[in-house]
Task: inverse folding
C-alpha cells in the first residue's frame, strides 16, 4: 500500500511539473508549415516556419531542410528569450523539437499517457500531460527551461558543473558529487523528500542536460544560489516511462 501511494505521489509530482508544450495545428502533436529561413549550427537545424498561427522558430536535430520546404515537426518545449552561443543570437520564442515527423530517422511519435496515469491525474483534478518524444534525459515534463544564468563552479576534487554530471553520469554513479547552481523549482514532500531543480548555465536544453534534480531533506528557497553535495544516481527509473539519466540523492547544502 505504501509503495502504491508513493507511486501515485510521484506521478502527481511529475504531472504538476509539466512544462508547456507548443500548440500545433488543431492541437495535434505535430506542427506543419513552410520553411522561411533555416540555418545549421552545432548539430542542430534552426527553422523559421510559417503555419496557420503565424511565424514560429523551431530547433531540431540537424536535418536536410531548404527554404520553401513544407515540414512537419513534433511539438516540444517552448523557451522564451533563448540565447544561442553558437549563432550569437537571441530568439524571442523558440520550440525545441525532437525532430521532423516525416523523417525516417526521427523518433517515434510521443506516446500517450497510460490509462492508469490519466486516471491518477483526473482523480486529482490535473490536466492530462503529454510526454515529450525524447524523455530519456529525465522526466521531460518536469524539466525547467534554461534560464541562462552563469554560476561559478563549486570548489573541491569532486566538484562538477551540471553538464559534467550528465556527461559523466556512468562514471559518477554511486559517488559523492558537489555542484553549485541556482534553485529554480522545488517540489516538497514527495516520497518523504524535497525535489530541487538547479541550473548553472551549462548543459544543452535540446538534450535536457541543463537542469539537474537533487533530492534532499533540507529546506531551500527558490532563487537561491547554493552548493549541494549528494550521491549521483545514473539511469534512475521510477517506472511508467519516467527515467532520469542522472540525479543527486541525499543532497546536503554546503553553503
Result:
Amino acid at each position: 500500500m505504501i509503495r502504491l501511494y508513493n507511486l501515485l505521489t510521484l506521478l502527481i509530482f511529475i504531472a504538476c511539473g509539466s512544462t508547456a508544450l507548443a500548440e500545433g495545428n488543431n492541437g495535434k502533436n505535430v506542427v506543419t508549415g513552410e520553411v522561411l529561413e533555416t540555418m545549421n549550427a552545432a548539430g542542430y537545424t534552426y527553422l523559421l516556419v510559417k503555419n496557420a498561427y503565424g511565424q514560429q522558430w523551431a530547433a531540431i536535430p540537424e536535418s536536410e531542410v531548404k527554404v520553401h520546404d513544407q515540414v512537419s515537426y513534433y511539438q516540444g518545449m517552448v523557451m522564451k528569450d533563448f540565447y544561442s552561443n553558437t549563432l550569437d543570437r537571441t530568439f524571442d520564442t523558440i520550440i525545441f523539437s525532437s525532430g521532423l515527423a516525416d523523417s525516417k530517422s526521427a523518433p517515434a511519435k510521443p506516446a500517450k499517457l497510460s490509462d492508469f496515469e490519466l486516471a491518477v491525474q483526473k482523480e486529482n483534478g490535473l490536466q492530462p500531460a503529454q510526454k515529450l518524444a525524447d524523455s530519456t534525459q529525465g522526466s521531460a515534463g518536469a524539466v525547467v527551461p534554461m534560464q541562462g544564468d552563469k554560476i561559478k563552479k563549486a570548489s573541491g576534487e569532486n566538484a562538477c558543473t551540471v553538464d559534467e554530471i550528465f556527461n559523466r553520469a556512468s562514471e559518477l554513479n554511486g559517488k559523492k558529487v558537489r555542484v553549485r547552481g541556482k534553485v529554480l523549482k522545488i517540489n516538497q514532500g514527495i516520497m518523504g523528500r524535497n525535489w530541487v531543480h538547479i541550473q548553472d548555465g551549462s548543459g544543452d536544453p535540446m538534450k535536457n542536460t541543463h537542469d539537474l534534480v537533487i533530492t534532499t531533506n533540507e529546506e531551500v528557497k527558490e532563487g537561491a544560489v547554493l552548493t549541494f553535495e549528494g550521491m549521483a544516481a545514473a539511469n534512475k527509473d521510477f517506472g511508467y516511462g519516467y527515467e532520469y539519466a542522472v540525479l543527486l540523492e541525499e543532497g546536503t547544502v554546503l553553503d
User: Anything to note?
Assistant: The domain at 18-134 is CATH 2.40.50 (OB fold (Dihydrolipoamide Acetyltransferase, E2P)). The first strand starts at residue 30 and ends at 41. The radius of gyration is 19 Å. The chain has two domains: 18-134, 140-253.
